[in-house]
C-alpha cells in the first residue's frame, strides 16, 4: 500500500478538469498497449475515468509513442513481448500501420543525436512534441490518482528522455540517485517515482518514469498551488484566454 494515497474524486475528468457525465470512459494510465499482452494477464492495470473525447484525442500519439519508444527495449523478455505486440498491432491497422512502421524504422540512425541505445550504440530519434504530449498526459493522470488534484495542462513543466545512464546530466543524476518509493503495478514494464520539492518561493514536483527498463523520462513541474512568478504569469494568461 502506498501511504499518503488519497482517493481522488471520480466526478471530474483529469484531462480537462470538467465534470464527468454519461460520456465517461475508463482510461489506462499509462496506455494499455505499453504493457505487453503476455505480461498484463491477471495484472490489475490502473484506470482513471475521463471524458471519452478527451482521451480519444491522444490515441494516435499514444500508438506512435508505443511503436517508437518501445522499440528501444531489446534483449529482454519485455522487449521480445513488445516486439510481437508491435507487429500484431501494425498488421491489424492496415495501411496506416505500415506508414507508422516505416516512420519508426527510419528513426533508427547511426548518427549522433536522439536516444542512444546501449546494445547497438545506434541512436533512435523520435518526434519530440508527440512524446512530450503523451508523457505529460501520463504524469497528469498519475498525479491525479495519487494526489487527488487536477493538474492543468498549461502547468509550467519540463521533460527529458534518456536511453542510457551516461547521457543523464549531473543535476538530473542527483535526483535519480534519491532513495524514493518506486510505484507501478508491473515495474519491469513501467515504474515511477516522485517527490515534492519545496523551494523558497516555489512549490514543485520531481517525477521520473522508467519504461520497459530502457527509457528514463523525467518530468519536473510546478504544483497547482505554486504562486511563483512563472505560475502567476501562466495563470493570468489562461484567465485572459478564457475571457475572450
Ligand atoms: Zn475531459
Ligand atoms: Zn511556480
Description:
By secondary structure, the protein is of the alpha+beta class. The chain has one domain. Helix content is 37%, strand content 18%. The protein has a four-stranded antiparallel sheet, with helices on both faces. Strands 3-5-4 form a three-stranded antiparallel sheet. A two-stranded antiparallel sheet has the order 1-2. β7 and β8 form a beta hairpin. α3 packs across α6 and α4 packs across α5. The longest helix has 20 residues. The N and C termini lie far apart (46 Å). The N terminus is likely disordered. It binds zinc ion (2 copies). The site of one zinc ion (ZN) has 7 residues, from α8. The site of one zinc ion has 7 residues, from α8.
Provide a brief overview of the structure.
By secondary structure, the protein is an alpha+beta fold. It has helices spanning 37-40, 52-56, 59-69, 77-93, 95-106, 128-147, 170-176, 229-243; strands at residues 24-28, 47-51, 108-109, 115-116, 123-124, 160-162, 190-198, 203-211, 215-222.
Amino acid at each position: 500500500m502506498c501511504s499518503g494515497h488519497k482517493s481522488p474524486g471520480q466526478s471530474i475528468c483529469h484531462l480537462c478538469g470538467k465534470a464527468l457525465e454519461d460520456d465517461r470512459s475508463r482510461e489506462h494510465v499509462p496506455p494499455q498497449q505499453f504493457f505487453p499482452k503476455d505480461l498484463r494477464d491477471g495484472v490489475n492495470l490502473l484506470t482513471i475515468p475521463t471524458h471519452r473525447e478527451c482521451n480519444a484525442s491522444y490515441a494516435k500519439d499514444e500508438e506512435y509513442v508505443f511503436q517508437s519508444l518501445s522499440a528501444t527495449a531489446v534483449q529482454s523478455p519485455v522487449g521480445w513481448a513488445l516486439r510481437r505486440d508491435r507487429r500484431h498491432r501494425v498488421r491489424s491497422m492496415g495501411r496506416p500501420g505500415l506508414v507508422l512502421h516505416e516512420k519508426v524504422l527510419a528513426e533508427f540512425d547511426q548518427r549522433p543525436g536522439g536516444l542512444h541505445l546501449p546494445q547497438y550504440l545506434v541512436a533512435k530519434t523520435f518526434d519530440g512534441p508527440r512524446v512530450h504530449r503523451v508523457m505529460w498526459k501520463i504524469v497528469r493522470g498519475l498525479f491525479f490518482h495519487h494526489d487527488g488534484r487536477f493538474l492543468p495542462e498549461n502547468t509550467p513543466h519540463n521533460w527529458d528522455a534518456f536511453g542510457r545512464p551516461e547521457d543523464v546530466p549531473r543535476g538530473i543524476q542527483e535526483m535519480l540517485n534519491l532513495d524514493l518509493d518506486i510505484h507501478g503495478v508491473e515495474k519491469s514494464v513501467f515504474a515511477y517515482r516522485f517527490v515534492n520539492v519545496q523551494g523558497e518561493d516555489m512549490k514543485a514536483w520531481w517525477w521520473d518514469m522508467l519504461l520497459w527498463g530502457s527509457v528514463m523520462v523525467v518530468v519536473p513541474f510546478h504544483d497547482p498551488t505554486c504562486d511563483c512568478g512563472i505560475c502567476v504569469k501562466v495563470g493570468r494568461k489562461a484567465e485572459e484566454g478564457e475571457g475572450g
